[in-house]
Design goal:
The structure is a homodimer of 197-residue chains. In chain A, 44% of the residues lie in helices and 12% in strands. By secondary structure, chain A is of the alpha/beta class. The first copy, chain A, has a five-stranded parallel β-sheet with strand order 2-1-3-4-5. Chains A and B meet through β5 of A and β5 of B. The structure holds manganese (II) ion (MN) (4 copies).
Chain lengths: 197, 197
């Protein structure tokens, strides 16, 4: 039975990337999942996807129209999720936010940690499952961590975000300081604003 | 800052044992925690504690009277927890039940899986932390899994419960089939009833 995997509404880079990464892992483990999104990528995420030559995920407005079960990443609160969340079963959650306005009828897999980024937790899921992360996906996950932690400078950044970020940079063969600044700059859209002014 | 670790009201063997096991692990990892309980052990749990020469945990009726932060095992629903749960911060949850009536103000560590027993999940926490389980604790955790899965026969039993149960039996050097039947019999209190009749 196919399941959809998605992050929150008004997706940021972590919401898009953690869904792609967790769906990849679940499919490697034998599940049939598709990473989708609840909105179009923002400027920063567009830069990230273009940089790693990765397509934007399909945007959905209903889950129940397609599946009976879903996996949530980077959120859990119903008001941040798909509008018909109550009509489907949540089987997995990977998140780094507080838990609120979230309820299930059945036991589920829920992995949350108070770290800077959902993609940091997805990395740990790959590790414990013993599944290798392809270079492109590592680049995307690194981008999500840089985005959520503002290049490891936000107060929510943990030692684990930094350690895992560096490991992903190695796998992706990316100079994370240089790339990170370019990426954050693309997100603020300074370049195009300067041109337009 | 000390934290209390406890299972649900009217504790069963898993509620008592998972608290003891997770508190042991957290202390090994440098935290200052104490496993307590929200009620006295039932007949089955008394048998288990006596068998492994382990004291019953201290019973509390308030968390806030002692600490600012707590870790929950084997439950998450507020109505099953300590009466003043809303006055303390939940930093960790290890559980195998649905999520309902649970809300936090801040991000936390939450590890739930749809398996037969919380102690199965605690075992995985030991594994990923690389911490060894002492023989006595392994015997207690095996008892919790036998209790929750009715000796691996309940419909909630997973392959992982069985695999981990067998590994714990090996560490504890316990014949789990023989011990498990004795333990479940102690729980039904057949022996004492027969004597009394
Ligand atoms: Mn996000
Ligand atoms: Mn995030
Ligand atoms: Mn229980
Ligand atoms: Mn249990």
């Amino acid at each position: 039975m196919k399941e959809l995997v998605f992050g929150h509404q008004n997706p940021d880079t972590d919401a898009i990337v953690a869904a792609k990464a967790y769906s990849y892992l679940q499919n490697k483990l034998g599940k049939d999942t598709e990473a989708v999104a609840l909105g179009n990528p923002n400027e920063e995420t567009k830069f990230v996807l273009a940089h790693f030559n990765e397509p934007a995920p399909r945007v959905i407005s209903s889950a129940k129209a397609e599946v009976d079960a879903v996996m949530l990443v980077d959120h859990n609160e119903a008001q941040q999720s798909v509008s018909d969340l109550k009509d489907v079963t949540v089987t997995h959650v990977i998140d780094h936010h507080r838990i609120a306005n979230f309820e299930t009828a059945a036991p589920l897999y829920y992995h949350a940690e108070p770290v800077g980024c959902s993609s940091t937790i997805v990395y740990k899921e790959f590790e414990s499952a013993g599944v290798e992360i392809p270079a492109k996906l590592a680049g995307l996950m690194l981008s999500a961590i840089i985005s959520d932690t503002l290049l490891f400078k936000s107060p929510t950044t943990t030692k684990e975000d930094l350690k895992i970020g560096k490991q992903l940079a190695k796998i992706a063969n990316v100079d994370y300081e240089k790339y990170g600044l370019e990426m954050l700059k693309a997100g603020t859209n300074l370049a195009s604003k300067t041109e337009a002014e």
